[in-house]
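In response to the reviewer comment on reproducibility (Comment 2.3), we provide here a single inverse folding case reported in full, input and output, so that an independent group could reproduce the run without further information from us. The structure tokens appear first.
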């Protein structure tokens, strides 16, 4: 019997558990440990609330969680309630699936002004993450600037531009919905340091911008390459650029503009005690790199959301690659018995589905590294340790009660109203 501890209950964590089941059958026990009392990581707190079909993948993880040899161990903070060295003593393999929940800093003057928010915080706020429930971003300035050229930037822009009615069917949390309904922003500017052919935006997400009730997406035709240049693009990117070409034909006929500002990088953020404007430098592409031209201009804004990537937080005693913002590893192996998977292994790249082969690869590593007759005690010893320390562990059955309570408290048309405080989640475990 092999005993495996997985730290993190997002896609990478559950795919690792699934991979271990496929690799070892009944001869494995997997404990999935998470800091929050609720599972699924970025499926719950990162995927946009109006993308419910994507969140449906959690049903696959639920099937894994309900199997006899996998369990959820929620409300446990690794480093406080139990350490990595302790887990390595108890388990044959410890897999870090902690994701990359921390924002990369912009690293420019003024990026610490009130009103500058990282996308992890902003997305966490409207998705009900307990760490960001009290964020209350400033939404009463003339404009917002979103920095980045990927789908997260599109999510942020779309959420800012939607009407209250357009959130029907979503699970955006009530406090964010009310706050967004009161905003006065009339221009959302998306800054991309390179051009339309270098975006990381997918066609579906771009297409959604073209159907908003009160917002129109706008692209400067001069930023687009000649149409014949699109032929060399891979099909998905070609479809994305086709949307941008359509946006270049739109007119400003709605109350809110979503402006794509290509070949532009922020170089400073200014304001008297808060964000008031973003200083932007025009760029040009040299050898595939965006190089500043020295031409600058200002964009009025009371909110700046930085969508430029994420970092995995370090853990005591675990080798860390500060340059790449992830755990130092060789193809997922960190040290004997210690592994990294998903964004914690490779950095914040890939889709949800990318984590499946990643998790299965780690299961194969464990099979190669850990003998069949491994004799570490696993979950029984962990339970004894938690009992001695008074750790209040949340089980998957507890989560199901929390889930039922969220569904029961949903506003009309919404699938759920998430609890945004840990104590509320813990209280919801009790029936009735």
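Designed residues, in position order:
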């Amino acid at each position: 019997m092999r005993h495996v501890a997985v730290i993190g209950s997002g896609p990478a964590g559950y795919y690792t558990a699934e991979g271990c089941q496929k690799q070892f059958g009944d001869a494995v026990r997997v404990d999935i440990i998470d800091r929050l009392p609720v599972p699924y990581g970025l499926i719950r707190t990162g995927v946009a609330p109006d993308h419910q079909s994507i969140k449906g993948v959690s049903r696959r993880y639920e099937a894994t969680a309900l199997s006899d040899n996998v369990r959820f161990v929620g409300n446990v903070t690794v480093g406080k309630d139990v350490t990595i060295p302790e887990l390595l003593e108890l388990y044959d393999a410890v897999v870090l699936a902690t994701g990359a929940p921390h924002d990369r800093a912009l690293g420019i003057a003024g990026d610490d002004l009130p009103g500058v928010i990282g996308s992890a915080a902003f997305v966490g706020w409207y998705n009900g993450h307990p760490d960001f429930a009290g964020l209350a971003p400033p939404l009463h300035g003339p404009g917002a600037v979103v920095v980045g050229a990927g789908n997260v930037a599109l999510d942020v822009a779309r959420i800012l531009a939607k009407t209250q009615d357009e959130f029907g069917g979503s699970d955006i949390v009530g406090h964010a919905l009310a706050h967004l309904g009161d905003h006065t922003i009339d221009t959302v500017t998306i800054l991309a340091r390179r051009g339309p052919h270098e975006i990381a935006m997918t066609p579906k997400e771009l297409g959604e911008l073209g159907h908003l009730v009160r917002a129109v997406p706008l692209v400067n035709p001069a930023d687009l390459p000649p149409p014949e240049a699109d032929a060399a693009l891979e099909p998905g990117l070609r479809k994305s650029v086709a949307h941008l070409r359509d946006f270049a034909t739109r007119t400003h006929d709605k109350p809110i503009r979503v402006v794509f500002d290509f070949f532009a990088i922020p170089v400073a953020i200014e304001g008297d005690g808060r964000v008031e404007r973003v200083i932007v430098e025009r760029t040009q592409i040299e050898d595939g790199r965006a190089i500043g031209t020295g031409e600058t201009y200002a964009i009025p804004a009371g909110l700046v959301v930085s969508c430029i990537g994420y970092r995995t937080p370090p853990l005591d005693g675990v080798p860390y690659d500060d340059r790449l913002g992830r755990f130092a590893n060789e193809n997922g192996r960190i040290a004997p018995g210690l592994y990294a998977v998903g964004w914690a292994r490779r950095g914040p790249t890939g889709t949800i589905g990318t984590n499946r082969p990643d998790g299965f690869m780690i299961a194969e590593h464990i099979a190669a590294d850990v003998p069949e007759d491994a004799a570490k005690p696993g979950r029984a010893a962990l339970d004894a340790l938690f009992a001695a320390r008074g750790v209040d562990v949340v089980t998957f059955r507890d989560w199901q009660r929390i889930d039922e309570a969220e569904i029961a408290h949903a506003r009309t048309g919404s699938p759920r109203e998430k609890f945004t405080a840990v104590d509320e989640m813990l209280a919801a475990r009790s029936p009735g």
